[in-house]
Amino acid sequence: MDACYFGTESHRLYGVVPQAEDSAPTALVFCPPFAEEMVTTYARFATWGKQLQAEGIVALRFHPFGTGESGGTFGDFTLSSAVSDARSAAELARQRLAPARLGYFGLRLGATIAMLAACEQPVDLLVLWSPVTNAAQYMKDLFRGLLAKEMVHQGATRVRRTTGDMYAELEAERPVDLMGYEFSPQLYKEMASAGKWPEIPPARHVIWLARPAEEKSATVIVEQWKKSGSRIDFAVLPEPAFWEEFGSTFADRFAAKTLEWLKHNAETR
Amino acid sequence: MTELVKIRSGEWEMSGVVHAPAATPQKRVGVVLLHENFNTKFGTHRVFYQTGEALAAAGFYALRYDNRGMCDSPGVNPLTFQDRVADAGAAAQFFKSEFNLDSVYFWGLCMGAAVAMHASSHSDSNIPEGIMLCSLLADPRDAALPQFGYDGNPSKVAEGFSRGNLLKKATQFATNPIYRKNVVRMLKGAAARVTTREPELEQLKKYIGQVGDLLRQYSGPIVIVFGDKDPCWFHFAEGVNANDKLGLARMGARRQFLMVEGGDHTFSSKAQTDEVIAWTVEWAEALRDGRAAQFSHFKSGENRGIPVTSIAD
User: Fold this and answer.
1) For A234, what's the count of Cα atoms within 13 Å in the CB-facing half-sphere?
2) Taking a C-beta distance cutoff of 8 angstroms, is the pair B304, B238 a contact?
3) Could you report the per-residue pLDDT of B9-49, keeping only the tens digit for each?
């Protein structure tokens, strides 16, 4: 494994590139989920990446600008910059790993970013775990969830602010503090105005794994993609929302299904 | 400015990041930032990254790393507490020699703070010359929390069973086969966890239980920071150091308590994070200059019998 910086001096990005002995047959660029979800799942995805390598699949991990070890502050994180960073990471994968097949892999908002990056520059594979299909609703849920957490963690006995207060702050071009993360007005604008998903899938091979709670919203898009003649592997599996807490629980069903799919794809190519 | 480094710890290689000051300081002082639990070297809301940047801006070196077999370090390892202590020692030695440092301090959060205390007792050199402990994990009960990887431990199962109407539960068990099946399944799961995880948890609890004594024994200066909403603070004040049984209040400037009012376990708001980082820089500067930190812009008082300074209202 080789941790490295890439990008430009003013937009420095951090990545971890597996050391492949030869050119890799399959490489995935992992797009991490948003804010604290990136932190809670980080160790688990790093471990899974190492396990994937033993199966001949290399996963390059990167930190979008403003997050993790990359430059900038969290206030610099936007959807558009994260999509652009995912593409830079894909370029790094091409240079360093020379894969026969390249794909994006993402969880939650990371899956959405993976899809958007693939729309801009098509890839062979797209692995989506519980993607966020409605960014505006996700933002609302995030605000509500974080307000609840804030009350629990900080032992507050009354609501100090509401989601309405937070929207008003962002509308007034002021950032909002979400448990230590600076949520910028620009990110708010992008999430509030995020459009519908594309009508055709942005990759030749797509696997979409959803939890039962996500089935309804996912099916609408998956059915549309299938109508376009594309082959989408879609499965609903009873996984816990493992990104909500620290711990050792992983999405074992998602992981097994994805590995099986990646291997099958490699064989039938 | 940050630099990526590789640190050798026994047979393992660890991935690290060093924050360096823009200009070479007269006295070269480094702070090893020890992170908590399964977390990464950048930390929740990037608290370690931000702390490293602030220390570098104030003329210090700061080192963060991922433990052996964790996160960005190569390999996979079921990390034990002893591994963490060994890694901290190896990281400090690496830091001192590779960056030609005059002094090394430890700064830890939660389990990282407990690791700092153990690593300081293992060191036969003068490392560390000072320690800052944030949200210190010192009560063995806290080591059993789900975030430490022992989810669904038997005490939690017992707690679940004891809640609600017991008679109703017993009736359900006798008459409802689905309920009975679920109960049996849950008990089996708990039993499996006991057999596979409990020895490890017992080990961890033992090491965490030693932190109080190490706090008393360490001869150098220690600054202890808690958020007053952090459950670990209540357990520390009412259990580990009840009635100041460790005698910390009598150790004068060598043991200072700082309290973040409204602060939670990871200081998860910008204001709390900024305060803790400001205290960190003030602590490091005072240590480097050979004086006790005054933390003068914060109010002084008592909290559960312990003299503390805290963020002003």
Assistant:
1) 19
2) yes
3) 999 999 999 999 999 999 999 999 999 877 789 999 999 99
Q: Please, are residues B87 and B68 in contact by the beta-carbon 8 Å criterion?
A: yes
Q: Which of B5, B66, B232, B269 would best serve as a mutation to test chain A binding (most A beta carbons within 10 A)?
A: B269
ipTM greater than cut 0.90: yes
CB contact under 8 A, A42 and B149: no
- Which among A146, A175, A196 is the end of a domain? A196
Residues A153 and A244 both lie in one domain: no
Query: What pLDDT does residue B193 have?
Result: 54
Say how many domains are in chain A. Answer: 2
Map A84-137 to HEC letters: HHHHHHHHHHHHHHCCCEEEEEEECHHHHHHHHHHHHCCEEEEEEECCCCCHHH
**Domain, as residue range, for A150:** 134-196
Q: What per-residue confidence (pLDDT) applies to B154?
A: 44
Question: Is the CB of A42 less than 8 angstroms away from the CB of B40?
Answer: yes
Q: Which residues of B touch A154 (CB under 8 A)?
A: 229, 262-264, 269
Residue A142 and residue A126 share a domain: no
Total residues found in chain A within this entry: 269
B262 near A CB under 8 A = yes
C-beta atoms of A180 and B45 within 8 A: yes
Report pLDDT for B236: 95
- Is the pLDDT confidence value at B195 over 90? no
A247–B4 C-beta distance less than 8 A: no
pLDDT along chain A (269 residues), means of 10: 94 93 85 95 94 92 98 97 98 94 97 97 96 95 83 69 92 94 96 90 95 96 91 94 85 96 78
Residue from the list B151, B229, B269 with its beta carbon closest to the beta carbon of A179:
B269
Touching A: B residues 266-295, CB under 8 Å: 266-273
CA R_g for chain B: 21
Query: Searching chain B, which residue's CA lies closest to the CA of residue A242?
Result: B147
Identify the H or E element spanning A235: strand A232-236
Place of tokens 């471990």: A47
CB proximity A51 to B under 8 Å: yes
pTM score > 0.95 for this model? no
* Claim to verify: residue A156 and residue A30 sit in the same structural domain: no
All domains of chain B in start order, with CATH: 2-144+208-310 (3.40.50.1820), 146-204 (no CATH)
Which residues 26-65 of chain B have a CB within 8 Å of chain A? 37-47, 49
What are the chain A neighbours of B204 within 8 Å (beta carbons)?
A: none
Q: Do A153 and B272 touch (CB under 8 A)?
A: no
Q: What would the pLDDT profile of B88-129 be if each residue is shown by its tens digit?
A: 999 999 999 999 999 999 999 999 999 999 999 987 778 899
Residue A57 half-sphere exposure, CB side, CA atoms within 13 Å?
A: 27
On whether both A189 and A72 belong to a single domain, the answer is no
